[in-house]
Prior knowledge:
0% of the residues lie in helices and 52% in strands. The chain is mostly beta strands.
Amino acid sequence: MKITIHNSQQYTWGGSCKGWHLVNNKMLSVILETMPPGTKEVRHRHSTCQQFFYILKGEATFVIEDEELKIKKDEGVHIKPNMMHQIMNHTDKEIEFIVVSQPHSHGDRIINNNENANT
């Protein structure tokens, strides 16, 4: 089956960020996500899931453990299980990226107690 954002489950997170589940099963998740300017995800980790983020458009700021990285279009970052991480859009343009999680990350998210869960 051909997969597009038009035949994939869409959801909203963080108030104005969007995601489309391109592959959604227990062993693998592939999601296309967009983040408007000034948005961020809550700092968190996954106990069993590893993730790979690949930027398609714009520039994302990641904080992984205590390191801040700027990841631009056509660049990616691998996040191993139990690594605290956060993605932010500090630019004035929307960012678009693919996030691959293995196994599926939903239900495996542990939020840093110092963060507001609504961000």
